[in-house]
Amino acid sequence: MATPRTPDSTRRSERSRRAIFDAALELVGEVGYDKLTIEGIAARAGVGKQTIYRWWPSKAAVLLDAFTADAGDYEAGLPDTGDLAADLRFVLRASVDEFNDPKFQAPYRALAAAGANDAELSADFVARLMEPGIKVYTDRLRAARDQGQVAEDADLRVAAEMLLGPFSQRWLMRTGPLTYEFTDTLVDLVVRAVARR
Amino acid sequence: MATPRTPDSTRRSERSRRAIFDAALELVGEVGYDKLTIEGIAARAGVGKQTIYRWWPSKAAVLLDAFTADAGDYEAGLPDTGDLAADLRFVLRASVDEFNDPKFQAPYRALAAAGANDAELSADFVARLMEPGIKVYTDRLRAARDQGQVAEDADLRVAAEMLLGPFSQRWLMRTGPLTYEFTDTLVDLVVRAVARR
């Protein structure tokens, strides 16, 4: 069966969306969240500002969609090879690479900093980006519990936060280097913390 | 022996310092770090701005001194009753109370958010406030290791970050409530993670 053709207008829209996301992520990394404007995003993307307002009510909404469009890596959940520690090490090492990449880092940092001071933006940021992240780790730990590798009474949500909280803190506040050695150590400690006794 | 009298000029200076710190903490909580100015601090404190410039080179320096003046709680280290879990629970419950207090929360949040986007400010913030915090926890874990309660090969610095990172993330990004139940669970998991096997 032939793949249905995408209508030209849909492809144009998709191209504009991508251009708007790229422009928003570039600009927020350059000027910070406070100085980011819809007009600036429109100019950088080469579209009219009405095009942006037709799809999004605010710069925050554009940015959150831009991140969500990029962040689909683990929509289906974390890998499950049956080896909890190996799977967590693999995924966190990939996150080390991602968060050490300046192209990713600048816009994410700008958004995280703005969220720290803005409860409404923060709620969206958490719901759209951070909660799904905590959830896939919690789910992977639950699968390990169902396989008998994790104690029945371990708090898996807090265990997931023990992987992601120290990682976020090192990255956001620069309290230490983000390295494979660090994330491997985190995984080792968390796996011991939740292990069956 | 009589206590030596403090000269009047020293007492006046100490009163001015305290007034400047209070003004800086109040103002940054109200207007945010970006809009905080030395002039604003001086006006709120009822001193001339030259008085501030004589002692501090920048608003960041005033704020960091203001926090450090308040943050002396555990300069001598965490309590050590011989019961690691009980001591950690006690101290983290006190931190829950402190970080849920709006008077403390607003200025600390403003400074943390500014630091996320400003590498130089962040370095000072980490060196003056966060590192000493991580260090007292690492030291308490080391004392427990010396008492034979913690595995010889456990990474104590990362274990300390596993107590403080999830706490900071819940607080700064509002990913969950800061409660005694949460910190007690954190302590329980970390103590298991580092326990002798």
TrEMBL record, chains A, B:
Tagged with keyword DNA-binding: yes
A single MF term (Gene Ontology): DNA-binding transcription factor activity
DNA-binding region coordinates: 37-56
UniProt entry tagged with the keyword Transcription regulation: yes
Keywords, comma-separated and alphabetical: DNA-binding, Transcription, Transcription regulation
Pfam family membership, one: TetR_C_11
InterPro entries documented for this protein: Homeodomain-like_sf, HTH-type_TetR-like_transc_reg, HTH_TetR, Tet_transcr_reg_TetR-rel_C_sf, TetR_C
HTH tetR-type domain boundaries: 14-74
Highest rank taxon of the organism: Bacteria
Gene3D superfamilies membership: Homeodomain-like, Tetracycline Repressor, domain 2
Protein name: TetR family transcriptional regulator
Organism: Streptomyces cinnamoneus (Streptoverticillium cinnamoneum)
